[in-house]
Amino acid sequence: MNSILKLIQHKDFILTLAKREIISKYKQSILGILWIIAQPLGLMVVLTIVFSLFVRLPSEGQPYAAFLFVALLPWLYFSSAVGASTRIINTYSGLLRQRNFYRPALVLVKFMSETINFIFAFLGLILVFIYYQITPGWNAFYAVPILIIQMIMMLGLMFLLSATNAYVRDLGLITPLILRMGRYLSPIMYSFHSVPVKYQSYLALNPITGIVDGYRSTLLHNQPPNLTLLLYSLVFSLIVFVIGWMTFNKLEKNFADVV
Fold first, then answer.
1. Which tens digit of pLDDT belongs to each residue from 109-125?
2. Given this model, what pLDDT does residue 10 score?
3. What mean pLDDT is predicted for residues 126-132?
4. Alpha-carbon span 138 to 134, nearest angstrom
5. How far apart (Å, rounded) are the C-alpha atoms in residues 215 and 35?
6. Rounded to two decimals, what is the model's pTM?
7. Angle between the 11-26 and 104-131 helix axes, to the nearest 10 degrees?
């Protein structure tokens, strides 16, 4: 309850700093915030050419670009936020020396800025759906709880990695490597159902699998998500969030001494 009250007290700071971070990132570029949409669309085009024309991966009966982008966009949101979390404490080291500063706000600033980026980038998915004349049905509303599960997982990992990396800097070096591997170990460029049955149980151990497969089921096929996979993702997310939150609160007292 105390944390919620502090969050409410610092909401203006979080929103202002998140907005400033986005503006400063694209301030001197010609396209400005249009890069938020252009970058994932560009990556989608390249991967579509590689995996639909050369590798020819199956796409569950949908245009490969739409099949890919509906999973790639949430992954980019996830990997960008989690990857940046290892640099949060060092980036805002000056604020950490203020005695009464609410330090979890720094993680929430990065989370909020990446969420705003994701909202703008989502317009790119709408354009792809319009181009291929894909109309989501009522089951698309399942994407909302799926997104919430993803956000819980992201926040937990961000709290855990940002706090731990302040003491063990190796995490900042290994996290990008793990995220790059994670893109290929998650059913993003390929379908979960195209994987041989004997290997699907191993792929299901990846908590991102239920989330990505859930987006495809609900947005592309107008079907409910696989509840078994999604329940696993939810339990994993809650556990990671609790561990991350507890770790951050335990370690944040000495941040100013180690950065």
1. 899 889 988 998 899 99
2. 67
3. 93
4. 13
5. 24
6. 0.91
7. 50
Kindly report, residue by residue over 26-40, the tens digit of the pLDDT. Answer: 666 666 667 778 888
Cα 244 to Cα 152: distance, rounded to the nearest angstrom: 10
Contacts of 76 (CB under 8 A, 6+ apart): 40, 43, 121
- The answer to whether the CB of 162 falls within 8 A of the CB of 86 is yes
Cα separation, 119 vs 124, in Å, equals 10
Give the span between the Cα atoms of 88 and 83, in whole angstroms: 10
How confident is the model at residue 14, as a pLDDT? Answer: 76
As a whole number of angstroms, the longest Cα–Cα distance in the chain is 57
Region for 102 from its dihedrals, namely left if φ exceeds 0, alpha if ψ lies in -120 to 50, beta otherwise: beta
Q: Cα–Cα distance between 118 and 147 in angstroms, integer? A: 11
**What is the length of the chain?**
259
Which letter does DSSP use for residue 49 in this model? Answer: I
Which of 47, 35, 24 has the alpha carbon at shortest distance from 120? 35
pLDDT, position 37: 81
Q: CB-based contacts of 152: which residues, under 8 Å, 6+ apart?
A: 234, 237, 238, 240, 241
Tokens found for residue 253: 């007292």
Burial of 145 (0-12, 13-18, 19+ CB in 10 A): middle
